[in-house]
Design goal:
Oligomer: single chain
Distance between the termini: 64 Å
Structural class: alpha/beta
Largest sheet: 7 strands, mixed
Shape: elongated
Strand order of the largest sheet: 3-2-1-4-5-10-11
CATH topology of the largest domain: Rossmann fold
Number of strands: 11
Strand content: 15-25%
CATH architecture of the largest domain: 3-Layer(aba) Sandwich
Low-confidence stretches: none
Mean pLDDT: 92
């Protein structure tokens, strides 16, 4: 085994919490312990957890995780949300300089950051700083995001569990819709990628049992990868409503027009987060506006207003305590793999989940972990491929085959 560096390891969690981000944290701890971290005479003296990500690191605020008991780790791995606390800080170069200085001050030689695009970019910058200063710091990005938009991976820890929530929520909502018919819009997370909204298709019985009963919803699905046209949207809804007397719709918060202008951003002026992004998930404006348009355009002149309702799933999608079994296993495995790389001599990288089985109905699912360069992931966004889409308002059978093993078994129901 290559010689380990003398020093401490630190782990942080960043961005939106998920149902399995703690499983990744536990995986890193377990992987480090398998390498002897914290044992007498081992070069890795302590395993520290940043409190609220890099914001806690620069303040010197840590949880000592070196001797946390295995039974607590098991419970933590199954607990949604970020156990260490998270942060929305997006470090620029001066901020990363402070991160690097904190690593020097606390003799940190192993740096693990669990998060999405911004977290991978933080790892990249801190790693480059350490290389410039000839300070050996092993920097590893452990992937996490419900949006499933990290480049280089088949899917990202956090997505399968959030997709499971969306599928089950839409199942329940559709049954509500057929009990009291009307038009129902559900706005789902996904600023630039439509994977999570597309998972609503798993609510259809045909997606689970291999047949397509007429009318199962959502009948219409809109994702950011396909230009959204308001007039065409109204026509789509009218066709379904005229045929069935009801319509069930899933819309991504990040839908945009043919010029790339966010529909939500046009409706939610002035409200931005620390990254300069319009706050789409914390507002019901998109759903309410679309509902208002449908009422105005589809209600017959002089007639009774149509029953149109909208819900924004919002943050409840991220941490719902019904994790996908695959997600729990792979999130923990990603953390372990990162720790093994660091203790085996690798200096940096991001962890990717690579599917090794073909996508197809009745195909057994299999995947492996790989190290990829931080530059491959940092600052980039993965979008749904064309083969996962079917026209402008639906997803393909290939997407359903892709999603099925990730989401796990879903309940069945009966209709009269």
């Amino acid at each position: 085994m290559p010689e380990l560096i003398q020093g401490n390891a630190v782990i942080g969690q960043s961005g939106g919490p998920t149902a399995v981000i703690n499983a990744s944290l536990v995986g890193v701890i377990e992987g480090l312990r398998q390498g002897g971290a914290g044992s007498p005479g081992n070069p890795i003296t302590k395993i520290l957890g940043m409190r609220h990500g890099v914001s806690g690191l620069v303040r010197g605020e840590f949880h000592d995780l070196t001797n946390i008991s295995p039974d607590r780790l098991d419970r933590l791995a199954a607990t949604p949300s970020a156990g260490l606390g998270s942060t929305r800080d997006k470090p620029d170069a001066p901020y990363c300089e402070r991160i690097f200085e904190a690593c020097e001050k606390h003799n940190i030689r192993y740096f693990f950051y669990i998060g999405g695009n911004d977290s991978s970019d933080t790892c990249r910058i801190v790693n480059e700083l350490s290389n410039e200063r000839n300070y050996e710091l092993r920097c590893f990005h452990v992937p996490k995001t419900v949006d499933n938009d990290l480049v280089g991976s088949d899917h990202t820890p956090g997505f399968p569990s959030a997709a499971r929530f969306v599928a089950k929520a839409c199942m329940a909502d559709f049954m509500d819709n057929i009990s009291l018919p009307g038009i129902k819009i559900n706005v789902v997370m996904g600023r630039h990628a439509g994977f999570l909204t597309a998972a609503s298709a798993m609510a259809r019985r045909g997606a689970r049992f291999g047949f397509e009963p007429a009318g199962d919803g959502p009948q219409l699905i809109y994702v950011p990868e396909v230009a959204f046209d308001l007039d065409r949207f109204v026509q789509d809804v009218a066709q379904v409503y005229d045929r069935q007397g009801r319509c069930h719709i899933a819309v991504s918060e990040g839908i945009q027009d043919k010029e790339g202008q966010s529909i939500g951003a046009m409706l939610i002026q002035g409200q931005v987060d620390d990254h300069g992004n319009v706050q789409l998930s914390g507002s019901g404006a998109l759903g309410d506006q679309l509902a208002g348009v449908l009422k105005a355009r589809l209600t017959p002149e002089g007639g009774t207003a149509l029953r149109v309702r909208a819900d924004t799933f919002g943050y409840v999608q991220r941490c719902f305590p019904d994790q996908s079994p695959v997600d729990l296993r792979e999130a923990r495995g990603s953390g372990r793999f990162a720790a093994r790389l660091a203790t085996s001599g690798d200096l940096d990288g991001s962890i990717a989940i690579v599917r090794t089985s073909p996508i197809g109905v009745d195909q057994p699912y299999a995947a492996r972990y790989e190290r990829i360069d931080l530059s491959v992931v940092a600052g980039k966004t993965r979008h749904m491929p064309a083969e996962f889409l079917d026209g402008h308002n639906n997803v393909s059978e290939m997407f359903l085959d892709y999603c099925r093993p990730l989401v796990g078994e879903l309940p069945s129901y009966e209709r009269l």
